[in-house]
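Section 3.1 - Work completed
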Amino acid sequence: MSVKESVARSIQQLTTTQYVRDGQLLPGILNFGMPSICDLGVGGGDLRQFSALLKERIQQFEPRIKGVDVVIERGRLVVIGTLPDSDEPTRWWL
């Protein structure tokens, strides 16, 4: 499995795992995952909120991606970042 495929799998796990909501927990494995996008509501603003949170979570849990960004293109989330073995940004469509 390539690094790109491994990172894609890690992002998929992060986006499909619902995290524990407890403000008293320190950042760590118990907070792995994302809230359900349905909990955020409906609309473009909510997708932007989700993408900002996803960017934070990727920075926390996927150190292989440098310069990570999460953007919305054609109504879909796209993770963009540079892998250690490349100078060119890689894109992962969600």
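Second construct:
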Amino acid sequence: MTNSVGHLIGVSFAIVASTGAGVFALLSWGIFRNSPFGTAIALLSIGMVALTLYHTMLLVAGPESLALHVIRSAVNTVIAVFLGLLILRHRQLHRAQSRGEPTWTD
């Protein structure tokens, strides 16, 4: 694959965006560690890092490499786990609210 200026700019932007999302994930998890919002935003940021790395690999390696199929599978697994965790957390909060318990601690 030829490396045009557009591809090189895209790859550098993907690396910067992925790094920023990773830092945001760590910071938001550290600040909102005990709240459901912190867990959700950290998992979404980690998903963004994975998707950005996937698109970087797509620009560099081409659309039909084995590494891209593995990354695509891993991203789909992370999304499924994230949705499952959100459903479980929603049920926990709903049960705690119906019993009158606090939903999270400071």
